[in-house]
Amino acid sequence: MSETLVHGFAELTLECRDREELETFYTDVLGLEVLAREDDRTWLAAGEQARLGLWLPGEKEYGDEGGAHVHFAFSAAPGRLDAVRARLQEAGVDHRGPVEHPGGDRSLYVEDPEGNVVEIWDFFHRREGREKSADALSDGSSPANPSH
Q1: d(CA 20, CA 72)
Q2: Residue pLDDT, tens place only, 87-123
Q3: DSSP character at residue 90
Q4: Which of 8, 33, 69, 113 could disulfide-link to 45, CB 3.0 to 4.6 Å?
Q5: Where are the alpha helices (DSSP H) in the chain?
Q6: Is the pTM higher than 0.70?
Q7: Burial of 113 (0-12, 13-18, 19+ CB in 10 A)
Q8: Which bin fits 134, alpha (ψ -120 to 50), beta or left (φ > 0)?
Q9: 37 backbone dihedrals φ, ψ, rounded to 5°
Q10: For residues 52 and 13, is the Cβ–Cβ distance under 8 A?
Q11: Long-range contacts for 134-141 (Cβ within 8 Å, ≥24 apart)?
């Protein structure tokens, strides 16, 4: 096996029309912390080693511009998926799940105010994901692309 060169996501950026509404969703409902606010973007902490960017439309300094995507997933904190579900329910946010996948891991699915499908997944903290880490994603025991 070759040496791993990538250790996970450092950042994911979403283009948004209403940055304040989206920021409120991610901070109030999912509990992310604001790292910085700039003229055209907000940075939120997404765990200890990643950040989520909420960017207003328009070209950025490296030619970046928003685009369509299917969905993205946050890794749920150990044992906290049910607390995320409770927070979604308290906030009156429609969601699906927890959906149990083969292998025992579970996911919640929710759309943010801009229509992005967000998955909160406890894969790395339950059964096979905990035991095998990312290797389990490729052996068919847990869905790499769960259906929505």
Answers
A1: 20
A2: 999 999 999 999 988 878 888 999 999 888 899 988 7
A3: H
A4: 33
A5: 19-24, 81-90, 127-132
A6: yes
A7: middle
A8: alpha
A9: -125, 130
A10: yes
A11: 136/103, 141/102, 141/103
